[in-house]
Specification:
- The complex is a heterodimer of chains A (about 375) and B (about 250).
- Chain A has about 375 residues and is of the alpha/beta class.
- Chain A folds into two domains: about 100 residues, STAS domain (Transcription Regulator spoIIAA); about 230 residues, no CATH class.
- Chain A is about 70% helix and about 10% strand.
- Chain A contains eleven helices and four strands; from the N terminus they run ββαβαβααααααααα.
- A four-stranded mixed sheet of chain A has the order 1-2-3-4, covered by helices on one side.
- The radius of gyration of chain A is 36 Å and the shape is elongated.
- In chain A, about 35% of the residues are buried.
- By secondary structure, chain B is α/β, with parallel strands linked by helices.
- Chain B is globular and about 55 Å long.
- In chain B, strand 7, helix 6 and strand 8 form a beta-alpha-beta unit.
- In chain B, about 40% of the residues are buried.
- Chain B has nine helices and ten strands.
- The longest helix of chain B is centred in the C-terminal third of the chain and has 18 residues.
- Classes of the chains: A alpha/beta (about 375), B alpha/beta (about 250).
- Chains A and B meet through helix 8 of A and helix 2 and helix 3 of B.
- Bound molecules: adenosine-5'-diphosphate and magnesium ion.
- The site of magnesium ion has 3 residues of chain B, from helix 1.
Chain lengths: ~375, ~250
């Protein structure tokens, strides 16, 4: 049998309502609600006092208290005096405790359900705001670079060295693996098609141009977005949470120069070098397929590659690498600086930095490709 | 002591986050050499008040005067110059985690003084010794305890020999003995250096032990309800909220 609480109401006099509680008033059982009391009161506007009789009550827990809380608010709304004397002593004390501090009325409201359209509107407004913030951040970064060129920027050379090491030497293994495999995959796919025409040798052209002009930069950029962009956001985010950035600001040190500038510089210097390295790895990957599977001679493959690549392709690839490096650094630092003040905000900042950086890389690839097309290179 | 001289004056100040007004009509003066306590319950806006005083957040209305310079009405370079003469110890210590304690203290010296590396090393050693942490130069912030981080935070705040030191909840998270030592340290520094100290706290022990002047922010009234020496306030006040705060809610 489930626990069951009973309630009877009677009116010993015209201005008093007596609530008689009996049985088990426990959570999970069947309990009458405060609305019963309200219904009863509505019919009799003359009631001024509310008293309890709990002699028949066998046991109680929070189930009774929630009921009493509701009756309590009901009474204070209708200016009825609630007499607690008839309640069990423990319940009296707990009720007193619960009603001691008035409920915060200007508390934040539970998130209201918003309609699809207003949600869309909010998102659009937010998009414009964040675009504005992004532009401001980029503008500040440009100013910082300007101050750097005039030799006025405040940052520690030793930081720059450490960051350069972290973003280059330590990234070599993963960049090697990925670019080698991308070269290999490109060669495989190309080989199947080109073999149909007996033009296997052009695998070297395909892999060479694709890697040097585009793929090496994009793959390195994406690896760095995940590896370094996320790390930058987490570092700066943690500094934000620990008020370390505030501590810089109150000393008059610009976080833009002190934190963002060395990171941007490190990636701008190291990404082109990483790209060069990635080119070599990609071409090696293609060569394994060309020499091992298609029986092209090593020198033959090498010469064909050298002939195909050309200085322009190399230049465009390296320039893209530079741009991607700056994008990864800016995205990481911006999300880190925008980080909220909680630990979970740091995780969000890192995620958001990676997404921003990858979107930025793809967008700028499109822009560079279209520009090159216009310029005819 | 010479006649009280206003160091920082807050005039008719309102602080808000967006539309959410935290406190309004704040007017008080922090005198030179005071140990000035900003007190009030949790969430009443003490830390926010401090961020306004140290130039991290603009007030919604009103003025902050340093001497007779209108701080928030000045251009950013002037503000930078004023705030560089202030030292701040943050609630979490906020030591730069990628640097050793020595580097933390040396950084402001490297940026704003012409001292040679040797001289800077000497100053760093002195400041760490002043807070009782001689020999900890090469430790990283993560390698020392919370109380030590706060001490090191004070050493860094004192690097440029500031005219005013701000502390956000200096004794929060410390055991009673360390908290007491920190209070003593603050008192000694004030005695020996004459620095103005502005302390955000709700620790009654500290308030009565070291405070020479104070302002009470009443969260239920959204404004300040008293300013003066905390011991005197306790003796004289009729305001029930302030009484409750100063007596830990003990019923008299
Ligand atoms: N960045 C912020 N944005 C919006 N509200 C804030 C922010 N920081 C603090 N608050 C609100 O301001 C109030 C006062 O905060 P704070 O100054 O930290 O209080 P105290 O230091 O006295 O405990 C709190 O209610 C808090 O929710
Ligand atoms: Mg605070």
């Amino acid at each position: 049998m489930t626990a069951r609480g009973e309630m009877i109401m009677e009116q010993p006099s015209a201005d008093t309502l007596k609530v008689i509680l009996s049985g088990d008033w426990k959570l999970g059982g069947e309990l009458p609600g405060a609305d019963k009391v309200q219904q009863r009161l509505e019919g009799r506007p003359g009631v001024r006092n509310l008293v309890f009789d709990t002699r028949e009550l066998t046991s109680w827990d929070s189930g009774l208290l929630t009921f009493l809380m509701n009756v309590g608010t009901l009474c204070s709304r209708q200016k009825i005096l609630l007499n607690r004397d008839g309640l069990p002593p423990g319940a009296q004390r707990l009720l007193e405790l619960a009603l001691a501090v008035p409920e915060k009325t200007d508390a934040r409201q539970a998130e209201a359900r918003v309609s699809f359209l207003s949600n869309l509107g909010n998102q659009t407004v937010y998009l414009f705001q964040s675009a504005g913030e992004m532009l401001t951040f980029i503008g500040d970064a440009v100013f910082a670079v300007q101050r750097l060129l005039r030799g006025k920027a405040q940052y520690r050379r030793s930081d720059l060295g450490l960051i350069m090491q972290a973003v280059s030497a330590q990234a070599l293994p993963i960049v090697s693996l990925i670019c080698f495999l991308v070269g290999l995959i490109l060669a495989f796919i190309g080989a199947i098609q080109l073999q149909l025409f007996g033009a296997q040798i052009y695998v070297a052209d395909l892999v060479g141009i694709a890697m040097v002009r585009l793929m090496a930069a994009i793959m390195t950029g994406i690896v760095m977005a995940g590896r370094t962009g996320g790390a930058f956001a987490a570092q700066l985010g943690t500094m934000q949470v620990n008020q370390e950035i505030d501590a810089l600001k109150t000393l008059g040190i610009s976080p833009m120069e002190f934190l963002v500038l060395p990171r941007m510089l490190a990636l701008a210097i190291m990404m082109p070098l990483l790209c060069l390295y990635a080119n070599i790895m990609g071409i090696l990957g293609g060569m394994v397929v060309g020499v091992g599977m298609l029986n092209i001679g090593f020198m033959e493959y090498y010469n064909e590659t050298a002939k195909a690549i050309g200085l322009w392709n190399l230049g465009i690839g390296i320039f893209s690498g530079l741009v991607f490096g700056v994008i990864v650094a800016l995205a990481g630092c911006m999300r880190g600086m925008q980080c909220g003040r909680s630990a979970s905000a740091v995780g969000d900042a890192a995620t958001s930095a990676v997404v921003t950086a990858i979107v930025g890389i793809i967008l700028s690839t499109a822009v560079i490709t279209i520009l090159c097309n216009f310029l005819g290179i | 002591m010479t006649e009280a001289e206003g160091h920082i004056t807050v005039q008719d100040l309102t602080m808000a986050y967006g539309d959410f007004v935290l406190m309004r009509d704040l007017t008080f003066t922090i005198n030179r050499g005071d140990i000035f306590i900003i007190m009030g319950g949790s969430g009443c806006g003490k830390s926010t008040m401090m961020t306004i005083l140290i130039g991290l957040k603009a007030p919604a209305k009103g003025k902050v005067l340093y001497g007779d310079v209108d701080f928030w009405g000045s251009d950013p370079p002037t503000r930078d110059r004023i705030i560089r003469r202030a030292g701040v110890m943050y609630q979490s210590g906020a030591l730069w985690s990628s640097m050793t304690l020595a580097e933390n203290i040396a950084l402001p010296l490297e940026l704003y003084t012409d001292l040679s590396p040797g001289q800077i090393r000497e100053v760093v050693k002195l400041k760490l010794a002043l807070v009782g942490m001689a020999g900890f130069e090469e430790f990283y912030p993560s390698e020392i305890s919370g109380g030590m981080q706060k001490r090191a935070g004070i050493a860094r705040a004192m690097a440029l020999d500031p005219e005013v030191l701000f502390f956000d909840e200096p004794s929060a998270g410390l055991d009673p003995v360390s908290a007491r030592r920190l209070d003593d340290l603050i008192l000694e520094l004030r005695e020996s250096l004459g620095t103005t100290m502005v302390i955000v706290t709700h620790e009654l022990a500290s308030i009565f032990a070291i405070g020479s002047n104070s302002v009470f922010l009443d969260v239920s009234k959204r404004t300040m309800t008293a300013t003066g020496n905390p011991n005197q306030l306790l003796a004289e006040t009729r305001d029930p909220n302030l009484r409750l705060f100063l007596t830990r809610g003990e019923k008299s």
